[in-house]
Structures are given as structure tokens and as C-alpha cells.
Amino acid sequence: MSRFLKSATLIAMLATGAGPGLAQGLGLGRPALPEEIAAWNHDIDPSGADLPAGTGSVMEGEEIFAERCASCHGDFAEGIGNWPKLAGGRGTLDRDDPLKTVGSYWPHLTTAFDYIRRSMPYGNAGTLTDDEVYAITAYILYSNDLVDGEFELSDQNLMDVEMPNAGGFIVDDRAKTEYALWQGEPCMENCKDAPVKVTMRAMVLDVTPQDEDTAAQAPSAGVVKATATQEAPAEEAPAEEAPAAAAAFDPELAKAGEKVFRKCKSCHQIGAGAKNRSGPLLTGVVGRAAAAVDGFKYSRAMTSAAGEGLIWNEAELSSFLAAPKSYMKGTRMSFRGLNKQEDLTAVIEYLKSAGD
Amino acid sequence: MTDRTSRRAFLKHGFAAGAAASIAGTARAQSADPLITEVQPWAREFGDGVDATPYGLPIRFEGDVIRRNVEWLTADTVSSINFTPIHALDGTITPQGCAFERHHSGAIELRKEDYRLMINGLVDQPLIFTYADLERFPRENHVYFCECAANSGMEWAGAQLNGAQFTHGMIHNMEYTGVPLRSLLEEAGLDAAGDLKDKWVFVEGADASSNGRSIPMEKALDDVLVAFKANGEALRKEHGYPVRLVVPGWEGNMWVKWIRRIEVTDGPVESREETSKYTDTLENGTSRKWTWAMDAKSVVTSPSPQAPIAHGAGPLVITGLAWSGRGAITRVDVSKDGGMTWETARLARPGEKMALTRFYLDTTWDGQEMMLQSRAMDDTGYVQPTKTQLREVRGLNSIYHNNGIQTWLVRANGEAENVEVS
Fold first, then answer.
1. Do A198 and B137 touch (CB under 8 A)?
2. Using 50, 70 and 90 to split pLDDT, how confident is the model at A211?
3. Residue A143 domain-assigned?
4. Which domain holds residue B31?
5. CATH classification of the domain holding B74
6. B12 has pLDDT over 60
């Protein structure tokens, strides 16, 4: 430490007379309280030493997973769309496009527990109890055929679970395998044996975002919305749908719908103070034009449906929620859909009730 | 006099090469230019007053110099990445407003007043710092690049994205102001940690993803900065306002934003981000872990697919960026024929450690097709490999750390395309 720092420390300590009273340092900051450290110090390393007490079964995990995780990761942890797949992929690591899941790739189970506990569910992080985290972790193991359906995971046996790819990692060896090869004065002339030819072209794939797209999406999304709200709802929807909906409102049904809505909650908020999350806020969605929430970036499919005047009346919502991907090809909503008609009716009733 | 003579020589050469139209157009106009002969509105009337723009954005004519994302790449923009428009920038400093973003659960709003930084673990006295506390430590200024380990990751299997912004734009370069992490660790006291050689720090952000990474103590005490300013002003929200970690030369995922906790540990946590992600799978299925350093790399930013040649044959500036996470760039070579012959480019300034270096090749284009490449060398003697060389060692499934030589096919009409060559 420099002389300046030492004298600065002295001055600081003399001046304040307080501070942590350390032999070195500037006397800045204050001691962290044990309860503060306990509130943030949640990471769990591969020794498992910091695992919290708790237990959870595969069966409990299946239920929690369906409610809290499946909208992105799929009912069987197989992953929906671009969302992470958590199961499968064993034996694919040495093939093209390996499937890296908890079962096929993750070296430590503590990592899965740590990540689920601190960072999941997506959009609602840190809300699971330790028992729930054990249960979800158990279910992911089950989905990977690593434990049977009766299995119960706890702080007592988590370290006993053998991860298939535990031995699949080596520490960075570039210094030996690469740096030694790519050294020294490089070739400047006649560096290739044969005339250089193009072997592959990006244009063939055509997966690069185009400027026209970017331009078209930003401003015209507003134009599209304006058209939809001005024409379609003014003439049709409010006149027919809204009063009918109000007359039919059923508070009991809405209450049942609130339970169904738990499946939506990891991505959608509704009611006072609702904000856009990975899905748009749903306050007032029933009877409203599609793709009409400010500041939410809808899929192209949704924006263009709105351009054609799509209104979220009960019939349209019901078809969409029953099978989102088949109703609207290209929607970004990664939800598998509601199978039961009663769930559909109930959740739409809830959407109405929480809509104002 | 010499200058004028050489310019005439250029012009003559241009005529002779038969690509005279555009050059003659600018050099010997047929009729007087009305932009000169007629008084223009901006030369007659007032412009904006000094109160028009308390904080300025680029003029509207530069509206296409923006970050862009690739929608199909990720499931959700909240856990995604966008790309710096490097094809349209020059010099080396990246303006914050168009510097790429990578979030795991969105860019959060965290006020300085609500900011707390905890140092805990194997320290003599666990401490809490406020933002104001950090400003009372002696601070330093350094220019460093931050590159996502996945930069160029979509190109492992072959040429895919058509633009330098998309192939190489997960990078920015800023001048940071901050406190060395060493100062904060010493403030908490490291006697309790014992032998520091095998110790680590675990760093974690305040956002919902609480993105956490383990950093060996040797690096933590060497050059890691706890930064609160970039390019002279506060960090932008999307880059971790009010405080982020700067881990010079190492992959961007370790540069934890909204940093809230630094724990001294006796081993790596092996968090999700350093096991299931940011590990590099080799052809035989085993994976490298702890591949932190970003190896030397370069790319021609212009001409490139988004920055075609618009002026025909004649004088041409070929320019690009080079960088190394293991030292300073010492040389950049450029090839116009797909790597058969190389010319050494001019570095705008001597390379600086772990910062972007701008290179120029001031040349004459003959109007013929080019296969443009650049090849960086750093002060460890490392030479940027070709993609073929990289694939020979690693296969196609590494995702991360693709620093192979990029090729742009520039056609006679000046348009460019991302290609691979034999």
C-alpha cells in the first residue's frame, strides 16, 4: 500500500473516530450484519456445504414444475421453442449440435439447485421455498431418467446423486494446444497452395435481420395499432362484446380463473401496477385490440394479426389460449395451451375481473 | 505540391482504369454545384439554441447507427443480446448509447441511493459499501474492451450472419473510471483468507438473474475494477448503472453488472454461468472450462456487408478493429485475396493492453472482386488463427471463443458478403 493511502487512512480514522477499526484501509464502509449476509449469501458450491435443510419429492416436483416452470421448459422439462431444454441429450455431446441439459451436461447437481433457488422462476426469481427447490430439482432428475418416480431429494442425499457428465470437463488448455501452434512470423506471400475459392456464403442462409424489417417494425407497429383500434373495435367489438361480457360476469368463475392464471403468472402481470414482463401486461385485455400494450415488443405474427383487426373478444381469446402455437403461427408466447374448456372459460372470466 | 501531384496521379489512374464516372463526377463537375452557388437555408437562418438539447443524441441522419438484435437467437429479449454497429463506427471508443447489451433478466433500474455492495466470505471484516463510499477510494482510469465470449459464436459451422455488426458486434470499448477491486478487498482485510494463491472471489449482480461468476484471486488482485463511470459519464442502465465489474481481457459474462456482492471463497462456485454456459465443448464431447481470456482477434469493419464501397475504383480506406485479451495488439495484416498475400496495415495508435486498436490500410482499389481478411498479432507473439485452424483443434460445437479470421467477399459493384474460403 502506498504512503499516501496509509496517511489518508490515519487522517480518516482520526477524523471520524469510527469505522471498522481495521489495521489497514481507509476506514470506509460499515460492518455487514449477520442477517444481511444471510439475506444475500445464497450461493452453493460443489462441496454442498451450504445446502439448506429441506426435502422434496419427484411427485411434488412434477406439480410445482407444471405450475411454475412448464410454460417455458415444457411439461417434461423438454423445453418449448427457444427456451432451455432441461432433460434429454445423453450421448449427444460428441455429435453435431449436442443437446446440453442438466442430465447430459451439468457437472454438479449443486449448480442446478443453486440456480433454481437464486434465479428461477424466470420473472419471479427467488420466490421458491427450499423444499420446492428440492422438489423441482428431483423432478428434473426424474425427467432425465436419473432417479425413479418415488425419489425424494434432500440436503442429506443431494451430494450422493451422480451426474453423468461430472467428468466431462477439462481446465482451459489453450496455452498447450493452441498458443504453441499459432505463434511467430506469419506467411505474407503465396500462403496457400491453390487459388482461393469461396466455399460458403452467408446470403444462402438469409437469416440476417434486414434494415427494412427493423424500420418497418418500429414505426408501422404504431400505425397498425391505430388502424385496429380506430376501425374494428369502434364499429363492432365494443357494441356487441363489451355489454354482453359485462352482463355475463360471474365472480365465482373468476375466482376459479385466478387459480388457472397461476400458469400465466411467470410471464404476465395483471391489475393495478401491472408491468410488461416476458409477456405483455393483461389489464383490460378482454375486448381490446391485439398487440395494443405500449412498450411491449410483439411478435411479427401478433402485430400483423392486429393489423388485420384482431380483437381479443372471448371467442378469440379462447381459441388462442387453447392452443397458442396452432392458433397463431409465430407467436412468441411459449405456452402449451389449456386443455379444459372450464379452465378457458374461468381464466377469461378472471381476465375480465382483473381488467379494470 | 507533392500532395497535389499525387492526387492528380490518382485521378489519371482512375480514368485509365475505366471507373472514371464517379471520380470525375466529384472532381470535375459538369455544372456548378447549387449547394455552393445557391444560398442554403442553413446558411441563411438560425439553427437550434443552446437550450434545445440539454443532453444530445446523434443527429437524425445517423439514425441507422443503432444496436440491433437477432430475433431468432433467443426466446426473449429480456434474456438476450444485441450488437454494436461496429461497421459504422470509427476510432476505438464505443459510445455508450450504441454499445451492445447482454442481460439475463433485463436491464434494471437501481438508484445510487439504493445501491449496496457487500464484501463477505473469507475476509477479516465483512463490509457494506454505499455508492458514496466507493467514490472516496482512490480511483483509476483505463480503456478496456468488453467482448462476449459468444461473439462470432453463430459462425462456428460456417458463414451465417451477413454483417460485421452481427458477426463481431458483441463488443464495446470504453474508458472506465473506478476503484481497483484490490482496494475493496484490502479494506475488508485478506488475512483471514490465508494463502491467497488458491482463493477465489464470487461476484454477483443485483438483478433477478443474480448472474454470478467465480474469479481467481490472482486476477481479482491484479487489474479488476469496480467501475461507476464509462467514457466520462455514469454507466448506462443497460451496462450496469450504478456500478459494474470490469475484468480486463476476460469474457464479458464475468463483467457482472449492478454488482452487489463479492465473496472471498476457497474454491469456485461452479455456478450455472460457468458450467452449463461459457464452457467450450470440443469435438470428442469433453468441454473446456475456465476459458476466461479472449484471444487476439480482428475484423474489417469497412468495407463489409453493411458498409459497401459506394465510390468505385480508386482510393479506398480499408479499416477495422483488432484486440487481444492477453496483451496489446502489435500488428495487423490485411489480405485482399483470401489469405494468399498479406499487407501490414497502419495502426491508428500503438496497441494498448486489452483495448481495441484501430487499423487502416490506405489503398487503391482496382474495382475487381476482393476477399478481404484481417489477421491480428499481439505482444505474446500470438497470431490470429484461420477458422480452419480453430476447427481443427476444437471442432464445431464450442459456441464460445471463436476468434478465427473473417472473410468479406467484396464484389466489383462494391457490395460485400460474409463468406468462407478455401
1. no
2. low
3. yes
4. 2-44
5. 3.90.420.10
6. no
Residues B80 and B31 in one domain: no
Concatenating the DSSP letter of every residue in B212-230 gives EEEEEHHHHHHT-EEEEEE
Does the predicted TM-score (pTM) go above 0.90? Answer: no
Residues 238 through 267 of chain A touching chain B, CB cutoff 8 Å? none
pLDDT class for B76, splitting at 50, 70, 90? confident
> What pLDDT, on a 0 to 100 scale, did the predictor assign at position A232?
33
A 149-188 → B contacts, CB under 8 A: 168-174, 177-179, 181-184, 186-188
Which of B116, B260, B121, B193 is CA-nearest to residue A30? B116
Structural domain contains residue B82: yes
- Selecting from B119, B160, B381 the residue whose C-beta is nearest the C-beta of A202 gives B160
Shared-domain flag, residues B160 and B268: yes
User: Which is higher by pLDDT, A303 or B158?
Assistant: B158
Residue B131 to residues A323, B21, B109, B117, B238, Cα–Cα distance (Å) = 49, 60, 15, 8, 18
Q: How sure is the predictor about B205, in pLDDT bands with cuts at 50, 70 and 90?
A: very high
Q: What is the pLDDT of residues A321-352, one digit of tens each?
A: 988 878 887 787 777 788 888 889 988 888 88
Mutate which: B340, B388, B393, B408, vs A, most A CBs within 10 A: B340
Quick one: pLDDT band at residue B27, thresholds 50, 70, 90? Answer: low
- The region of weakest confidence among A33-37, A210-214, A327-331, B57-61 is A210-214
Collapse the DSSP code of B91 into the 3-class scheme (helix H, G, I; strand E, B; otherwise coil) and give the result: coil
Q: Would you say the C-alpha torsion B119, B121, B123, B124 has a positive or negative sign? A: positive
Closest A-chain CA to B214: A45
Residue B213 exposure: Cα atoms within 13 Å on the Cβ side: 26
Task: Please list every residue in chain A whose beta carbon sits closer than 8 Å to the beta carbon of residue B371.
Answer: 196, 198
| Residue A94 burial (C-beta neighbours within 10 Å; 0-12, 13-18, 19+) | middle
Look up the ipTM and state it.
Answer: 0.90
Q: Are residues B159 and B233 in the same domain?
A: yes
Residue A199 contacts B, CB cutoff 8 Å: yes
The whole-angstrom distance between residue B76's C-alpha and the CA centroid of its chain comes to 23
- Chain B within 8 Å of A110 (Cβ-Cβ)? yes
Pairing of strands B287-289, A169-171: parallel
Put simply, whether A272 touches B (Cβ < 8 Å) is no
CATH code of the domain in which A343 resides = 1.10.760.10
Regarding beta strands B244-246 and B233-234, do their DSSP bridges make them parallel or antiparallel, or are they unpaired?
unpaired
* Rounded Cα–Cα distance for residues A314 and A346 (Å): 11
My answer on whether B351 and B239 are in the same domain is no
Tell me, yes or no, whether A330 and A261 share the same domain.
yes
If asked whether residues B307 and B408 sit together in one domain, one would say: yes
- In chain A, the number of structural domains is 2
Q: Which domain holds residue A306?
A: 211-353
Min Cα–Cα distance to chain A from B28, Å: 34
Specify whether B80 is located in the same domain as B214: yes
Q: Does residue A84 belong to any structural domain of this protein?
A: yes
* Structural domain count of chain B: 3
| Residue A148 touches partner B, C-beta closer than 8 Å | no
B131, B18: one domain:
no
CATH of the domain at B334: 2.60.40.650
Q: Out of A5-14, A113-122, A206-215, A260-269, which region has the weakest mean confidence (pLDDT)?
A: A5-14
Per-residue pLDDT band for A27 (boundaries 50, 70, 90) equals: very high
Least confident range of A154-168, A280-294, A324-338 = A324-338
